[in-house]
């Protein structure tokens, strides 16, 4: 076997093992009643999070010297898929994806300072890569220099896991319009955090307001490239979550259609529903392929933008569609609070809008196609 | 604005004078302008159940005083006694003014009133129609846990004992049952007859011993629906609507109620909602200036504009048929599916256009389905139309089999 083939096999095996561990752990510890309890503010969520950290989920991307797994986005995507399946109300976006990813890109002292703490579950670092409306590329934050310090002002909306974060990497525009990524500790003077509760009760988003926040010049850990990669990592994470969620919705729906009888037959025997289930599967299959590819291509030169744009638009929209179909095919019960279907639908609709919606990503593709 | 084409055509059929109809419109419009509180949405945003129900009662009272409540019910029962053309105009004017919809009493005013008019005895009509017009709340006890789309397979049993019936069973999805004093109940009176033959429609007094109501919470967070448990509930034979074992036919009449002027009003209201969607899209365009996404958004809106207009035109044709022959053509089933799905697309586009902001939890107006002022809540509420009262799938089967004459699916009676 060639080295490359051996590495590929190793990667596949690692991912399979990760998936198995994650699935059985979440099936056991993150059942729907637990999800609802944590979403409603139950403190037991902290205990679950500690277990997740012990499993190493916040350290998937970090190199071994920082206590991480030294793996990559394909492995992280597997975990995110499983979290999506389980509707896990965990700060994975911030703590496992955005913060560690951006710090790895930054390298240097910031990475050395924060990564080991993130891996050990002692700190959460998230990233605010967009403006007040949460759309990547539109920034409402400015950074200037004053007496040897950097000064930040402005707002960023819908920042994932910000209420739990110790620091946030903020995308801000400098005096000449250049984009900077600046690490700001959430306890710093002038930082205000305001919850932005959304229909999806399994995620926590907040609005970040910066008023004359002063940081050392070393807090500037990157520029436009870091910001764009961070937003893309977020988009990929949501896409992976969608693959997991959509897969679970399809399973639940198929189970319902197999067992629920009307007109003396199982619902699933009606072709009108069968074809739609087949269509759900077509879209899911496409979403899965797109996400797998984007995770693998993320760091290959010139491939990231197209791969992420395809994955985000395909997977997030597939999830929303599949969850909507799931609700409809459950009939009246799909419309009730007690049934999980609405939790999936709400998470899917939020995922569609987070880190740029389908149109946003198709516009990026459009620019590449006609470049 | 002149009378809509349909009201003119209807007036010709009904021998009405177009000028008189114009006068009616002017009359209605002036009343609406004076009586619809401009700030009712703001006041009802975030309102609790009690407050909302009280407001509904207040608005119903206003309509009654104005003579605009239940325009389809004859005057002698306290209704508007309006001609079809007048009803159309009233629906249009209320919709265009963004007047509150009657939701809590809609089963009473539309389903129960129409069923009583079509199948009730003189005594039942005299007892219930004036009460309904005075604000009696009704619910509909058709569906059961095991019988939804396949309504005819319902299991609730009404056993005859002398001149009484003893009812046992469970109903589900009954809208506003918590507030209802009466229920249109379907129960099986002849378990040996073919599925559709042995069913009887009853008027159930919800305060009778043995009636238990349990609210269900829906995905929007509200408690509009309930389960009803019936244990040895005794009903007199005078509570039968129509004939014994003829309940299926009676129920079909009840269900078709929502495919008349009622649906025109819904469509007109959807067109008003479309105006709100247009404003939301317009607000997004500057940020998308010149991008392909801008073009796609404009196309989506234009497409929905055309769809809602077409819906309106189909509805006019249906009303035309009603005016001419007193019965609706195939348009009524078409409208049921198209309305539900167009509505869903409107809510979807509104949610998309709103971006992350549309995902935020915020206080909304309850009870009016797709006019809550929150696109995401409206989207979550669409099963009221895509599932309730005959799902889109069932309606498609109906169109394929009864309108297009295709053979039945094997096994599906
Ligand atoms: C908002 C709302 C309000 C309601 N209000 C009332 C009320 O006031 N009173 C009352 O009695 N009931 C009410 N209902 C109940 C409603 O009538 C039923 O939910 C509906 O008939 C569907 O039944 P079900 O929920 O059992 O779904 P099921 O019949 O189990 O259907 C599940 C899915 O399978 C599909 N399906 C079923 N059969 C077929 C087939 N042959 N071919 C293809 N697809 C099929 C359905 O379309 C649906 O998507 C309400 C429902 C809703 C959602």
UniProtKB/TrEMBL annotation, chain A:
SUPFAM superfamilies from the UniProt entry: Acyl-CoA dehydrogenase C-terminal domain-like, Acyl-CoA dehydrogenase NM domain-like
A Pfam family that the UniProt record links to this protein: Acyl-CoA_dh_N
Species per Swiss-Prot/TrEMBL record: Capillimicrobium parvum
Signal peptide annotation: none
Co-factor(s): FAD
Domain Acyl-CoA dehydrogenase/oxidase N-terminal: 16-121
Protein name: Acyl-CoA dehydrogenase FadE27
Family: Belongs to the acyl-CoA dehydrogenase family.
UniProtKB/TrEMBL annotation, chain B:
GO cellular component: plasma membrane
Acyl-CoA dehydrogenase/oxidase N-terminal domain sequence ranges: 19-136
KW Cell membrane (keyword) present: no
EC top class, as a word: oxidoreductase
Family affiliation: Belongs to the acyl-CoA dehydrogenase family.
Protein name stated in the entry: Acyl-CoA dehydrogenase FadE17
Record organism: Capillimicrobium parvum
Pfam assignment, any one: Acyl-CoA_dh_M
UniProt superkingdom: Bacteria
Assigned EC number: 1.3.99.-
